[in-house]
Specification:
Helix content is about 25%, strand content about 35%. By secondary structure, it is an alpha+beta fold. α2 (about 95-105) crosses α3 (about 110-120) and α3 packs across α4 (about 135-150). The radius of gyration is 25 Å and the shape is globular.
Length: about 350
């Protein structure tokens, strides 16, 4: 049975450097939970603490209600998939997958049954007699995945498992992993720096930066409602524009004036005046808007990407922003030098204080 994983105020230090800085989160039973952030942010360190490979300098990690801080890694009932696969080159696929079962002194017939079941789950049962050197990168990753799940762990940990694969194979393998995890219902903690991968595969995502959690939410909420400027900038593409809240009404309607020349009203959760910044996704811009409330600019570069066209647009204050226009909605792609007006729905964008540390929308 899968565990609930509770990370309670966990700390990891290397000398004076704090790699994991008082992180807390609860991972639900059977959940696909992703730790996402830039290189060096502490996500792999935290994963290795859950695995038992790194010691814990503060706080607690619990499986269900049991504190596991001092339990050896091999006694934690986890499966681990590493970035470099870590499969044994001298063993066949079958023997690699059977390794954990043999360590548990399982009978030969039972081992054969369980190994073949695991190989079938990742669709490589026909490769059971091959050595790793005879396999592609994607096939080796499937072996590593089969070896991790064959023991039916209560928690599955995955550390950048797709980073060594090419782009097309990464997309294929993330689909395999997502389907397999849902089928088995194993509580899974997954580490990646690839935002698209995290959005595609996760039930919830924890965004980590400099050892701290920036936001924990579903992929949709993190993308649409980032809680701070770091999350808005790290997930997807965001256009940040600065301006001022020049008036607040009693019903929390803010009158905002952007440095780029546009004024608009926006409902806020908190009262604020003075300097602010907003975040607008490229797809949130409405092009060729004819209202009085719009930004004016000129196309400085266009890129046709099949299902949409991406434009770099120079605004009146010389700021460059990105906007997307979808092929199904247009008959032509705009060209360099073309004048353009654009606006957005203020209900869809995010607004932050000047430091970008708090969201008000």
């Amino acid at each position: 049975m899968s565990h609930i994983v509770k990370i309670d105020n966990v700390v990891k230090k290397y000398g004076d450097f704090v790699a994991v800085n008082h992180i807390s989160c609860d991972i639900k039973q059977g959940e696909f939970f992703t730790l996402l952030g830039p290189s060096g942010c502490g996500k792999t360190t935290l994963l290795r603490m859950i695995a038992g490979f790194n010691s814990i300098d503060g706080g607690q990690i619990l499986f269900d209600d049991k504190v596991i801080n001092n339990i050896e890694a091999h006694q934690r009932d986890i499966g681990m998939v590493f970035q470099n696969y870590a499969i044994f080159p001298h063993m066949t696929v079958f023997d690699n997958v059977a390794y954990g079962l043999k360590a548990r002194k399982m009978g030969k017939d039972q081992i054969h049954t369980k190994v073949m079941e695991a190989l079938a789950l990742v669709h490589i049962e026909n490769l059971k007699d091959r050595k790793p050197s005879e396999l592609s990168g994607g096939q080796q990753q499937r072996v590593a995945l089969a070896r991790a799940i064959v023991i039916r762990p209560s928690v599955l940990l995955m550390d950048e498992p797709l980073s060594n694969l090419d782009a097309k194979l990464r997309v294929q393998m993330r689909t395999v992993i997502k389907k397999l995890q849902k089928e088995l219902g194993i509580t899974t903690v997954y580490v990646t720096h690839d935002q698209e991968e995290a959005l595609a595969i996760s039930d919830r995502i924890a965004i980590i930066n400099q050892g701290k959690v920036m936001q924990i939410d579903t992929p949709e909420i993190i993308y649409k409602r980032p809680q701070n400027a770091f999350v808005a900038g790290f997930i997807g593409t965001s256009n940040f524009m600065e301006g001022d809240v020049i008036k607040m009404e009693d019903d929390m309607t803010a009158h905002v004036k952007l440095d780029a020349g546009m004024s608009f009203k926006m409902k806020l959760k908190n009262k604020i005046t003075g300097r602010i910044k907003i975040s607008v996704r490229p797809e949130q811009f409405i092009l060729d808007n004819t209202s009085d409330c719009c930004l004016a600019g000129e196309v400085s570069m266009h890129t046709f990407l099949g299902d949409f066209a991406n434009y770099e647009i120079r605004l009146q204050n010389d700021q460059i922003i990105e906007a997307n226009e979808y092929t199904k909605d247009i008959d032509f792609v705009r060209t360099q030098g073309q004048r353009i007006s654009l606006t957005f729905n203020s209900k869809q964008i995010s607004l932050f204080n000047e430091e970008g540390t708090e969201v008000f929308s």
